[in-house]
């Protein structure tokens, strides 16, 4: 696996250089140091030896492709609901309205959250509830594959969160509390970019420039280049660098809630996807704390000279507003469901 990271770095010399965290490394101090440097620098890093086999990753990508190859009328039968579960069509999401000029992202997706039965009182809360699944006979084994990956990815995310806690001077289990990752809003999102060519000068993107909303995101990609990051969002002009895919690795980035928690010490970095005419598949796993978690400046990240920059806010309140700002109203799809 060491060669894997070195090979990735060789590729990245032409684009962006990211630190590589090895979850199997017994030297936790080295991992904390590498992660802390990455979080201070750009908020992105590679994660290897994470415990999810390449064979299973290939199966997840294969099942994802099988869904997106279905006819549109079949996919629209599992259109996302108000709990953000299910299919999101091309142009459904508009991540960068200032630059996308009334045209959304040229990607389609599928949201899968933590399964909460409909009769559970928790299902009344935003982002909690049962998932939406394709018919069993349509894609055999599809649901089982996605539920297994969801479970495994959450364990990976918890392991990363423990290293982040140490990097912030907190107890190692800080993010393991019930109100945080004990009952998380963890969302698996399958993504498919159909091969359109992006043109920033015309406001056309695979995914517009944005930062993620929550704690961290784990991203697995195929071997098609497309992801770009901007390490300094205030620079004029902004400088965008590609992030090269590394076989078997997750690309991990920090979300806005972690930036709020850390009082902007750790970065939630702008990123986007440019299409180059090739189809591209990726799998994002968004990890947010529980619905009732109050996100407020950590005690290790504030001082008399560095007071909190953001007021406290509940996770569900913050997420609900961000999703509302970036997704089409469900009413626009009514004509497709009659």
Automatic annotation (TrEMBL):
The keyword Transport does not apply. The keyword Hydrolase does not apply. This is Fe2OG dioxygenase domain-containing protein. Pfam families: 2OG-FeII_Oxy (PF03171), DIOX_N (PF14226). Residues 184-289 form the Fe2OG dioxygenase domain. Keywords: Iron, Metal-binding, Oxidoreductase. SUPFAM superfamilies: Clavaminate synthase-like. Belongs to the iron/ascorbate-dependent oxidoreductase family. GO terms for molecular function: dioxygenase activity; metal ion binding. It comes from Gossypium raimondii (Peruvian cotton). InterPro entries: DIOX_N, IPNS-like_FE2OG_OXY, IPNS-like_sf, Oxoglu/Fe-dep_dioxygenase_dom.
